[in-house]
TrEMBL record:
Its cofactor is pyridoxal 5'-phosphate. This is cysteine desulfurase. The keyword Mitochondrion does not apply. It catalyses: (sulfur carrier)-H + L-cysteine = (sulfur carrier)-SH + L-alanine. Residues 4-365 form the Aminotransferase class V domain. InterPro entries: Aminotrans_V_dom, Aminotrans_V_PyrdxlP_BS, Cysteine_dSase, PyrdxlP-dep_Trfase, PyrdxlP-dep_Trfase_major, PyrdxlP-dep_Trfase_small. GO terms for molecular function: cysteine desulfurase activity; iron-sulfur cluster binding; metal ion binding. It comes from Fictibacillus phosphorivorans. Its EC number is 2.8.1.7. NCBIfam families: PRK02948.1 (NF002806). SUPFAM superfamilies: PLP-dependent transferases (SSF53383). It is an enzyme of class 2 (transferase).
Length: 379
């Protein structure tokens, strides 16, 4: 039986070149980057080089990059850090119903602390309305967090237009770019982004690596207490090996970005082409125009998600029902519920996501086996 991993939106395999770059900093170069002796100075350069490269990858300056443990910490740090710093100016915040739980649960916590949160709706393509955004802005609105690309459907928001609206109204803009970073060109200045979260394990770096971009001058209160690492914004000895890995993964992602984008688009089209040929009925969830190609979320009418996923696993195919953070839950996807309500479409959806290590043979196998399973389950 062939094994095919199509759950890269949950996590990606670590690239062999990334592993190779890490090893010296797990063995030979073990110094603390805050130490002033040669052992510390040697690894301090690793942080400096990584910070410069990652800043360049999004059009930022090196002092605007904070290394974190990943997307969840970056989201928490950005939202609570800014909200805490600006609560004297207002306590109204804006986000959407389709954010990752790292964002949604952070806003839920802020509501317990006395903040008021507006959750923007989305249409059936998973896109917010700029008009609704404008209407919900108030004099006491201090921060908006709207994700770049949805992790369940691949839908991409009009970040530039959103950034312009928020900039015109003097509102700080945070975006969770975990699914977008490394696959699309991002210039934070051009897009008017004030804070941006990214995670290493979505771009073939180890889990536990990531960064937060904070525009110079943005009011920000650190949420951890200890040493003066990361310019006093994130206490704790830096994960040098992880940061070196993140640096290498970011460089590889940028070098291969256009090729990967085109390849994933071919994978997505091939899966749908095979299903069409096999005569099975499916509906694609998300926007066909404003989307990233590495995520394909579909509903197969008459097939329960959990049953399909188990059968796919038995056929050696790894897919998911959406966010890995809620994989143990039998509740319908909050993203699809926001798009369509809680009907059958939300209970028969599966997410296939492509990445490093996949080839066209994998995609064809997965598509054919999926068709066989769907036919069997709908008899």
């Amino acid at each position: 039986m062939k094994n095919v991993y199509l759950d890269h939106a949950a996590t990606s395999p670590v690239h062999p070149e990334v592993v190779e770059e890490m090893i010296p900093y797990l063995t030979e170069h073990f110094g603390n980057p805050s130490s002033i002796h040669q052992f510390g100075r040697r690894v301090r350069k690793v942080l400096d080089d990584a910070r410069a490269a990652i800043a360049e990858s999004i059009g930022a300056s090196r002092n605007e990059i904070i290394f974190t443990s990943g997307g969840t910490e970056s989201d928490n740090l950005a939202i609570i850090g800014v909200a805490s710093a600006l609560e004297g100016n207002g306590k109204h915040l804006i986000t959407t119903h389709i954010e990752h739980h790292a964002v949604l649960h952070t806003f839920h916590e802020l509501e317990k602390r006395g903040f008021e949160v507006t959750y923007l709706s989305v249409d059936e393509n998973g896109l917010i309305s700029l008009e609704e955004l404008k209407q919900e802005i108030r004099n006491d609105t201090i921060l908006a967090s709207i994700m770049f690309c949805n992790n369940e459907t691949g839908t991409v928001q009009d970040i530039k237009a959103i950034g312009n609206v928020l900039k015109e109204n003097g509102i700080i803009f945070h975006t969770d770019a975990v699914q977008a970073y490394g696959l699309v060109s991002i210039d934070v200045k051009e897009l008017s982004i004030d804070l941006l979260s990214a995670s290493g394990h979505k771009i073939n770096s180890p889990k536990g690596t990531g960064f937060l971009y904070v525009k110079e001058g943005i009011p920000f209160i650190p949420q951890g207490f200890g040493g003066e690492q990361e310019r006093k914004r994130r206490a704790g000895t830096e994960n040098v090996a992880g940061i070196r890995a993140l640096h290498k993964a970011a460089v590889l992602a940028e070098a291969e970005r256009k090729d990967r984008y085109a390849q994933y688009q071919k994978y997505k089209e091939k899966m749908k082409e095979i299903w069409d040929q096999e005569g099975i009925f499916y509906v694609e969830n998300g926007s066909e125009k404003s989307t990233l190609p590495h995520i394909l979320n579909v509903s197969f009418s008459g097939v329960k998600t959990e049953v399909l996923l188990v059968n796919l696993d038995l056929a050696g195919i790894a897919a998911s029902s959406g966010s890995a953070c809620t994989a143990g839950s039998h509740e319908p996807s909050h993203v699809l519920a926001a798009m369509f309500g809680e009907g059958e479409r939300t209970k028969s959806s599966v997410r296939f996501s492509f990445g490093y290590g996949n080839n066209m043979e994998d995609i064809e196998y997965a598509a054919i086996e999926t068709a066989k399973i769907v036919k069997r389950l709908t008899k």
